[in-house]
Amino acid sequence: MNGQSDLQAAVAETLRRQSNLPGRQCLSVSDGFGSPLGSMSSMAVELAGVTKSYQGKAVVDGLSFKIAPGECFGLLGPNGAGKSTITRMILGMTLPDAGNISVLGMQVPGQARSARARIGVVSQFDNLDMEFTVRENLFVYGRYFRMKAREIEAVVPSLLEFARLETKADTRVADLSGGMKRRLTLARALINDPQILILDEPTTGLDPHARHLIWERLRSLLARGKTILLTTHIMEEAERLCDRLCVLEGGVKIAEGRPFDLIEEQIGCPVIEIYGGNPQELRLLIKPNARRIEISGETLFCYTPDPEQVRAQLRGHRGLRLLERPPNLEDVFLRLTGREMEK
Ligand SMILES: Nc1ncnc2c1ncn2[C@@H]1O[C@H](COP(=O)(O)OP(=O)(O)OP(=O)(O)O)[C@@H](O)[C@H]1O
Ligand SMILES: [Mg+2]
Q1: 58 CA distance to ligand 1 centroid (A)?
Q2: Quick one: 269-326 is in which CATH superfamily?
Q3: pTM of this prediction?
Q4: Mutation probe of ligand 1 site: the residue of 50, 55, 59 with most atoms within 8 A of C-beta
Q5: Within 6 Å (CB) of ligand 1, which residues are found?
Q6: Contact 32, 18 (CB under 8 A)
Q7: Structural fold of domain 2-262
Q8: What is the torsional sign of CA 48, 53, 56, 61?
Q9: Among 32, 60, 135, 185, who pairs with 52 as Cys (CB 3.0-4.6 Å)?
Q10: What does the pLDDT look like over 177-209, one tens digit per residue?
Q11: Run of H or E including 63
């Protein structure tokens, strides 16, 4: 038994280092930031004027947003927009230079340890212990939250079921597929029944089946009243799951709202994607009937309230492929974050 405890302690330490979770000695980080916004906040998460710079360059710049209890809030933005930095600051793992952060009414970083006890985290890159089994990974993570062995044993079956890993409990993590590892990471984040989940690109790199399975699991968590902060590059994921979104570029908020509202405000008409011709020539041709035209690589995107007219203008042009569709969040993302506007 002692041997096993030693092993678990060693694994917990490895896991702590890998997951970058602060150890006990780091947990009384003093709060040098601003007023006690948290003590007044009924929000699950609230950021006010948060700024972080590296080497003199702001990577998060005066950012404010609020996430209500039970809400799924999405953070979107191109690579390097500052999404992961924001999640780390909410967890108290990266200190902001200015601004206030509160989590369930607790100030971060001052009360980060208490706040973290109520948060489940799926970080951008898997940090499972590859040499240990699925069950052992759940076990050591539970120990990090000071759960007793019998408490962990009591929840492991439901977590395995949640992750659909019942048959893999004694498999080494190194032998799991990428989707299984991601599901295990999500299940592990639930071990202490957190109120808030912070998920940094939880389905990147997964096949469509695995992705749909995780979406379904996340919806079930929302139905149980959990609050989710989700960062993603998968626009379908954001559109399906998020109640509200914040779009970032260069650490600055450039849009915030409900997915449907953002699509209506930013696009608001059908889209025709046109492939197979010379985009510049086609642009001149259809310009009179387009509200906006954008060219991305070999594809021309025509935003038009009158798709029939555009189709009529293109009739007779050989080799063109046209795809007419409703506008979506990807159009919003590309518009806001820099697909070159042509009109
Ligand atoms: N520890 C660090 N030291 C220096 N620069 C950093 C550090 N962490 C992040 N950055 C920089 O901050 C910026 C934001 O990085 P961050 O990881 O938050 O972006 P992101 O939006 O999560 O990007 P991605 O979509 O690629 O995951 C980047 O320019 C990055 O290089
Ligand atoms: Mg990131």
Answers
A1: 11
A2: RRM (RNA recognition motif) domain (3.30.70.330)
A3: 0.85
A4: 59
A5: 54, 59, 77, 79-85, 124
A6: no
A7: Rossmann fold (3.40.50)
A8: negative
A9: 60
A10: 999 999 999 999 999 999 999 999 999 888 898
A11: strand 57-67
